[in-house]
Predict the structure.
Amino acid sequence: MRRYLGAAGLLVLFVLAWQGVASLDAVDDLTLASPTETFDALRDDWSLLIDNAATTLVEVLLGLAIATACGVFFAVAMHLFRPLRDAAYPLLVASQAIPIVVLAPIFVLAFDYGIGPKLAIVALICFFPITVNLLDGLRSVEPDLLKLMRSMGASRARTLRSAELPSALPFLFSGLKVAATVSVIGAVFGEWAGAEEGLGRLVLLGNNQLQTPRVYAGIVLLTLMAVALFALVALAERFACPWNRKEQAV
Amino acid sequence: MQTQTEAPVKEPLHISDVTRRYGRVTALEGVGLRVGRGEVVAVVGPSGCGKSTLLELIAGLQRPDEGTVMAAEASYMPQRDLLLPWRDALANAALALECEGVPRSEARRRAEPLFERFGLAEFERARPAELSGGMRQRVAFLRTLLPGRPVLLLDEPFGSLDSITRASMQRWLADALAREPRTVVLVTHDVDEAIFLANRVVVLSPRPGRVVADIEVDLDQPRDVTSPEFGALKRRALEALGL
């Protein structure tokens, strides 16, 4: 309970500081909307914001699902086949170095204005943390345990299922937590490159039309979305890895 | 599994003239050991004398550089319990059976009666983190016992326990082996433990490990560690160790 109080207190301080800075005469209203103006925009434009948020949320969730499926598949394949790991690892790292901002318009050209390019960009951003974390997790199993499995006559599939995958599960969740937070940024990039709806597009439009409070309202919703996704993953982890929580508590 | 099996097997274990090197370090040199059916042999020696290497050779986890290892199928119990934290005690004990292809529910069903018999009743559903060190070793021992292989290889099974728990676990193991007789090779650095549990105590020299003594222990179970006969055997073993 105490740690939630701390977080809430810090949030209140932040909002107060934001209000204070926004009220300064030197600060242009077009650059910075105050918390009260943002709140008014949230209230007045609620249905517009929520409709667009729904579009973005769908992009984020589907993109994450694709990234998770591909990430788990490639991590397990790379773990099982050493030559594949050696060959694909540099490419995996390179995939993360691609400047998404530049890639997004190309994706839009390739996949058209629909949901396709957004999913591709969200999945591309999320794929890396999921794959790398899971791969590390699969390799984290103690050598002594692998030796024991071998002495018991365990097949490769049995060792993977009974020892390596469960050991790697907390690592997978770490990757998913990172992916959950960056996925929202990916969706915004995707929408900036060309979209008919979505919070990212609304924010961009608001910026161009000098509707600063609406821009800030959109940012608040995008941030809330990322935080909620993170919390959801953390909650899922508690259910999926109860042994892990127990050990931390002791 | 990977060890050569002699058919028909006269002795469950026959090691002759085995040498094992790791790079420039010789762990074992010219080691010979024959163990008859139902015998409990303790291997004692100073740290680094290749005791664990010997067990891994018998388990088929390593191959000798020279010499031959002929062993019946063996179950290996490593120094640390290595219980899987996400499985309850029953599922941990059943793991070895599952590795042999027994379906999960069937493996659990076969593990269950042993919990009753070996003093673990009511702990079937407990996770390893909820068990004491001694209990965890018992579960690990059941995991070793369950596949029903003729040879048990125990690598310092009680090394990580405090001395009081260790003493009670030694009694428990002696009792368990009386009920469930197997051919056992027990590695330990504790001479008392060796004489308390084994029919024979084999003493290895410091690296490279060689057999320097093979002491017969013909004391009746349960053994009294404070008896003069026990003391005399301990004297012989310690002398062989150069102490």
